[in-house]
Description:
It is built from four helices and 14 strands.
Amino acid sequence: MWRVAVHKVITKSLLKSRLSPFLAVLLVFLQPPVAAPSHDPASAHFKVGERLTYALKWGVISAGTAMLEVSERQTMAGRPVVKLVHTARSNEFISAFYPVNNRVETLLDEEAGYPHRLLFKRREGRRKNDIEVVFDQAAHRATVTKDGSTETMEVPPGVQDTLSVVYFARTLPTLGVGSSTIIYVNHDKKNYRLELRVEGAERIKGALGEFDTIRILAIMPFKGLFLNEGNIRLWVTNDAARVPVLMKSKVLIGSVSAMLTKVEGVTLTARP
């Protein structure tokens, strides 16, 4: 009986979401002027070979795992880019109700800090989509191909996608307490305006021990991305790496969190 009840709650919650839980959290890892990266190249803030693994939970229920990786260095249209990869998979329990097996790849310009191309293989419940977005940052346009249908749309200057924004935020020059910055993100043929407010410093204990972190509140003046009530809170290491250690959001019922459980290819100095 309890399995039937849980099934109904999970299905009702997740079907109303337009992103997998971890992607929704990724969408708001940002730092009101429009954000601009530091003058350092992206490679100064993260290196090829970096891999971050997270445990996903819905309330106290283990939901699955997610991974962020700086995969390799490439060249696109003569520009140096790094290939970023995100995967999210539900565990056996959640998969019985709502299986998730997503993969996102993006090519991030190392110098300018914006994306050139996004590939998104979405596998969430009964939803299966193959999405490609090619950004023409000079013309402020994006060509979106979703399940074989292609259209072109206008995008704001320096627009980010749901994965590149995570790494772009790590290149921002400051994360001062009380600061607020606007970043524009393109997702599912729409442009979203996101605001991030730095709330303060906090020491938190996680799966890998204690970390000195910066606590950030993401203000989301729209509905539907994460069954959200408007805000998502996250904690990033208070060092040059700015690695997200913990991310939380309230949802329709309860909350969803992502906790860092494994770090490869990067040294974190934000430990007491």
